[in-house]
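Students often ask why inverse folding is considered easier than folding. One informal answer: many sequences map to the same fold, so there is more than one right answer. In these notes we will look at a single instance of the problem. The structure comes first.
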């Protein structure tokens, strides 16, 4: 710390006085030649970078991942070979709240893992739920706008949330999860997390399988009730951040066991629903969990802004042996995440230390704001060239993916195998009675300010998932159950039209 004891200006010259402005006389105005004051104010004015559009409020920590099982039959990724140990950084976040929001709100939690592998960085971007609200990237911006602040009032709006969710029936499973007791985790340490999307693995023989990633907490699942969360938010809005920091600082390192599910290409072709739809799950009974290894968090960042606020993740960052899938939402995220970082942090965001790979990088990118390395010096900046520079590595290419069908704007609801309510109904049926009651109470409370037409729309979805679910919600919300059943008989478009009016 000695080098920081003596204050200097931005280029290392000593600062004589850091508390008193240069003025024209003892009571006169400040003069422009107080250049250190001008520098301080100019920098201060620019210290707050734009917050993330989603996942704005977050906390992070460093750790390691140890691969304990043999996955070589599925993937050639070195990070996932038995015995490999990889450094990583994890950022946890709420999704809808702004940077100053309270930690203990009812919301899903984002979990992004940056593996600093020997083949480059692998970013696994997911949440604490195995599914998501939407399946088509066209709805990404609209989901954001529905859960953020209302443009007229500047306040969060349950009416906007539920109107959007109930007009996209694929939201139903995720809504059921968020309104359940797992909607407010007791801590980041006490929740599972998931890669959500379907990804691909390919091995040394270039054989592809599809996979999903699961991380199960070794600390056990714990959640908060609405009342417990309200009490905590009233005294500590950074409760989850404090819990994570204190646990690591005291040596109580949180751990998760990583599992994967595997589906062959043949199984995917014959699956009873779209296996690439992020709003659906792969049942564990059909595609069992396969243990992979252990993730441990064991070191806190030294500087929140440099290491947590500037941490940037994108699912586009994969390594040989791991690839993408036809998941519509994943396809959109492959672009949107990196582009958001270029806006928020600058085109050279991958040079920020927390984002920088631990291996040499030769991407041939040049120039741009905040280019603070050697910028590849005098090396030619183009390909092809006659010098053997920037040569591609075709040996790591992913195997080809066969596609079929015309290029068109397909609506998944037109797929005869599509069922937006199966998974939510299955979840309802495995809940214990006390958990069912919590789900109903949380939903009724959350929908209290919402107009009755939207309540009927949701009740019809509950009924389609399971008649008991629909009946109990309708009763708790004071709705006419016969009307709920009539709405459930309509197709989605007719049901939407029948529930447009607030006076229905």
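Output (designed amino acids):
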């Amino acid at each position: 710390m000695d080098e920081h004891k003596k204050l200097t200006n931005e280029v290392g010259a000593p600062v004589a006085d850091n508390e008193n402005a240069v003025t024209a006389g003892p009571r006169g105005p400040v003069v422009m030649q107080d250049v250190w004051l001008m520098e301080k104010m100019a920098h201060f004015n620019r210290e707050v970078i734009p917050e993330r559009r989603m996942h704005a409020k977050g906390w992070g920590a460093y750790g390691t991942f140890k691969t304990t099982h043999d996955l070589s039959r599925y993937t050639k990724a070195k990070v996932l070979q038995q015995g490999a140990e990889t450094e990583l950084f994890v950022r946890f976040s709420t999704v809808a709240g702004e940077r100053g929001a309270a930690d203990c709100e009812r919301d899903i939690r984002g979990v992004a893992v940056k593996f600093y592998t020997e083949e480059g960085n692998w970013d696994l971007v997911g949440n604490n739920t195995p599914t998501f609200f939407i399946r088509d990237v066209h709805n990404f911006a609209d989901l954001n706008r529905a859960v953020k602040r209302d443009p007229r009032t500047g306040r969060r709006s349950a009416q906007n949330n539920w109107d959007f969710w109930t007009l996209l029936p694929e939201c139903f499973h995720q809504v059921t999860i968020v309104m359940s007791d797992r909607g407010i985790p007791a801590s980041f340490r006490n929740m599972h997390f998931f890669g959500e999307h379907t990804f691909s693995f390919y091995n040394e023989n270039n054989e592809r399988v599809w996979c999903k990633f699961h991380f199960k907490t070794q600390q056990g699942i714990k959640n908060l009730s609405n009342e417990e969360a309200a009490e905590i938010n009233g005294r500590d809005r950074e409760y989850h951040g404090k819990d994570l920091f204190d646990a690591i600082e005291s040596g109580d390192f949180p751990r998760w066991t990583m599992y994967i599910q595997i589906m062959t290409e043949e199984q995917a072709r014959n699956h009873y629903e779209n296996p690439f739809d992020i709003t659906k799950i792969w049942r564990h009974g059909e595609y069992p969990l396969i243990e992979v290894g252990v993730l441990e968090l064991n070191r806190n960042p030294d500087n929140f802004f440099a290491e947590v606020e500037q941490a940037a993740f994108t699912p586009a960052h994969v390594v040989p042996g791991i690839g993408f899938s036809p998941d519509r939402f994943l396809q959109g995220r492959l672009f949107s995440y990196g582009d958001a970082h270029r806006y928020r942090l600058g085109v050279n965001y991958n040079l920020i230390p927390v984002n920088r790979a631990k291996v040499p990088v030769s991407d041939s990118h040049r120039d741009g704001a905040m280019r603070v390395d050697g910028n590849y010096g005098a090396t030619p900046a183009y390909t092809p060239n006659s010098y053997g520079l920037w040569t591609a590595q075709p040996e790591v290419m992913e195997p080809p993916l066969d596609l079929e069908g015309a290029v068109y704007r397909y609506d998944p609801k037109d797929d005869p195998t599509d069922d937006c309510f199966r998974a939510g109904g299955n979840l309802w049926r495995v809940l214990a009675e006390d958990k069912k009651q919590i789900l109903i109470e949380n939903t009724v409370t959350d929908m209290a300010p919402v107009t009755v037409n939207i309540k009927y729309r949701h009740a019809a979805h509950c009924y389609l998932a399971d008649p008991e679910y629909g009946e109990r919600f309708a009763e708790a919300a004071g709705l006419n159950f016969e009307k709920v059943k009539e709405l459930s008989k309509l197709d989605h478009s007719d049901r939407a039209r029948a529930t447009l009016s607030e006076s229905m």
